[in-house]
Amino acid sequence: MDDLEQQLRNALAHVEQPPTLEAKVFAALARARSTSRPSRFVFWRFEAAAVAAMLLLAAVSWAGHEREIRERAAGEAAKARLQLALKITVTELSKIQQTVRTSSEQE
Amino acid sequence: MIKLAIITCLALSPLAAQEIKLPANLDRLAAKASDVVDVTMDSRLLQLASRFLSDKEADDAKVKKLIAGLKGIYVRSFEFEKAGEYQASDIDPIRAQLRSPAWSRIVGVRSQKSGENAEVYLKTDNDKIGGLVILSAEPKELTIVSIEGSIDPDQLNDLGGHFGIPKVETNKDNKDKDK
Q: ipTM of this model?
């Protein structure tokens, strides 16, 4: 019985920790932090690059769309001006033809 | 200095390309006119318009074919509230340019009754029509049309009845009517 009591006492007795233990724990924590930080940075960097690329793509696409709208408007305006010019030309030729015809009929 | 010369040349190049130069005094008439039509289409604008003419639509295809050989179309049309707002001499600078051997007057109409005075000039290049100028002067209306480049008058006639362009009665139509 005394023997068992003694064993328990020994087991529960306060043992002084070695002075290097605390330093080892902090060193282990620091190592863990230093190994996990770069992977998080890489992820964020990749994400930022992807967002930037998407923004760039959207901007290029928008600029192209705007240019297309401007070109279409300019083309439609040119077409309308062309039609007006041709309308005036043909109208004037028609009037001249009519006058010539009328005068030749009178003769 | 060289830069300035290059810029000046570039700025004036469209004017230099225009064969029949419309006099600056026509711009003064615009101030007196009640209605003004000013259409300036150089080859660049004609090409742009051509891109928006469909090959599949018959009307568009006709116009596309017509303008394929053109270098420019210039139209100035003025309508005035009353007669005498412009002088016959206002278009003398154009007539002077048309006196060159390349140009020939094919029609000249002068009506004492209506006061109409119209002329049609054609430019011929190796038996091909290389330009057309119409000068139409009425008491309250003055119209100048200058078309540069290869043009087929029959194609112009074909445009009649399309795009709101009035149908032109040709001799062929009249013969058909007589039958």
A: 0.80
